[in-house]
TrEMBL record:
The lineage of its organism: Bacteria, Bacillati, Actinomycetota, Actinomycetes, Kitasatosporales. It comes from Streptomyces aquilus. This is Extracellular solute-binding protein.
Length: 423
């Protein structure tokens, strides 16, 4: 996700390595950063990978510093330019993040390692898109600068118990979804868990646009393979429908100031019957949700936000690059991939028969369905640096009705045109 990982609850990891003894490039220390919550599928898989690394590298210390997602996101360019750079770190994929760092010369070219270790063979084309960047930092072609070892996509999470209580069947069409939301509103329940201060709100809006779009539209917007017009039918429909949903009570006006964690918790607590968000919540919901719940892909559309997961990158200034490559390789192994799949993650190289958990099977089956129809449409904030903040602030205005759809689309067009490469 672009921003996808802002959720997962506990973004700070407690140290599970050794104290700082200074990486000197002697092959005796692996300095590692990642920001997955301990009970997320990724957090559990990476902790197991660390154990495996220690077992296969006797005498090598693993240093884990406590870092949060926001901390890494805001300080990466500065830290990676210093002697404090880790050997391997999880970083946000996409043009505005990993692409920008690769363009600035802050990341190691992994092309040879990807071929030698077979990482290139393990990733499908749509997942591989975010691994490679050209000289302008645009994803999709060029050199390998990162390796995603999980995938992610957005889906509709729904509270089966609440649906049953109000006599609502699982929606199979978009009309049935809106009818379900109407029924909840009639019963004084705000149907959608939402967060205007972070990514969920903009992802609702982007999904609405995608329901009227095609792959060429996505390529124009994300990869600059054409002109993006924010007043086209897809964007216009999305902005107008989103504003209408606020008026209808599907989305609470008070959600303009809430964060992704608040939205997720409102679903966990059974307050909001529907939450459209990413697979990064899946493991946590398995762990914490006490009612009967399920998921389905957004109905009546081929496209949904999704991509390869965040990527392992090796900073240009990393002192122990070989150890970093070894660690990445372990996270791509069948053992770790299968564990990831059974803990509620979306593995990229698991053995399908090894996934035994029923909910995990559903998660992976739905991802495969989306991936096989070339339905991964990345995330709305990816195209240009700083666009995430623009989308947050502008979508908040739609929620509070301090901006109309037309003005909202003008603001998006302006920010996009300023940041996108000149054609």
């Amino acid at each position: 996700m672009a921003t996808a990982v802002l959720t997962a609850g506990a973004l700070l990891l407690t140290s599970c390595g050794d104290s700082d003894s200074g990486s000197s490039g002697d092959g005796k220390t692996l300095k590692l950063w990642h920001y997955e919550g301990p009970n997320s599928a990724m957090g559990q898989a990476w902790n197991e990978a660390i154990k495996e690394f220690k077992a296969t590298h006797p005498g090598v210390k693993v240093e884990f510093e406590e870092k949060g997602f926001e901390q890494i996101q805001k300080t990466a360019p500065m830290v990676l330019n210093s002697s404090d750079a880790p050997d391997v770190m999880e970083y946000l994929k996409g043009n505005a993040s990993a692409g920008l760092l690769s363009k600035q010369g802050l990341l190691t070219d992994l092309t040879q390692e990807a071929k030698a270790r077979g990482w290139d063979k393990k990733l499908s084309a749509s997942v591989r898109t975010t691994s490679v960047y050209d000289t302008n930092g645009v994803m999709g072609s060029g050199k390998w600068y990162g390796v995603p070892n999980y995938a992610e996509y957005t889906m509709v999470y729904y509270n089966k118990d609440l649906f049953k209580k109000y006599g609502i069947a699982e929606p199979k069409t978009f009309d049935e979804l809106t009818a379900a939301m109407d029924k909840f509103v009639q019963n004084k329940i705000t149907p959608l868990a939402n967060a205007g201060a972070e990514y969920p709100a903009q992802q609702y809006l982007y999904q609405l646009a995608l329901s009227k779009a095609d792959r060429a539209w996505v390529d124009s917007y994300q990869l600059y393979k054409g002109k993006t017009d924010f007043h086209d039918p897809a964007w216009t429909y999305a902005a107008e429908t989103f504003a209408d949903w606020v008026k209808k009570g599907y989305i609470a006006k008070t959600s303009s100031s809430t964060k992704a964690e608040d939205a997720g918790v409102s679903f966990i607590q059974g307050k909001s019957p529907i939450f459209f968000s990413g697979s990064w919540w899946y493991g946590r919901f398995i762990d914490e949700v006490k009612f009967d719940w399920g998921t389905f892909l957004w109905p009546d559309t081929q496209l949904s936000p999704g991509s390869g997961g965040n990527i392992w990158v090796v900073p240009k200034g990393a002192k122990n690059k070989e150890l970093a490559y070894d660690f990445i390789d372990i996270t791509m192994s069948k053992k770790i991939q299968n564990l990831l799949g059974n803990k509620g993650g979306v593995p990229v190289a698991a053995d399908a028969s090894a996934i035994t958990d029923p909910k995990s099977k559903t998660l992976i089956d739905n991802f495969n369905a989306l991936s096989q129809r070339d339905g991964l449409a990345f995330y709305p904030d990816w195209p240009v640096p700083g666009y995430y903040d623009v989308l947050v602030s502008q979508t908040q205005k739609l929620i509070t009705d301090s901006e109309k759809p037309d003005g909202y689309l003008d603001a998006l067009q302006d920010a996009y045109d300023k940041g996108a490469p000149k054609q």
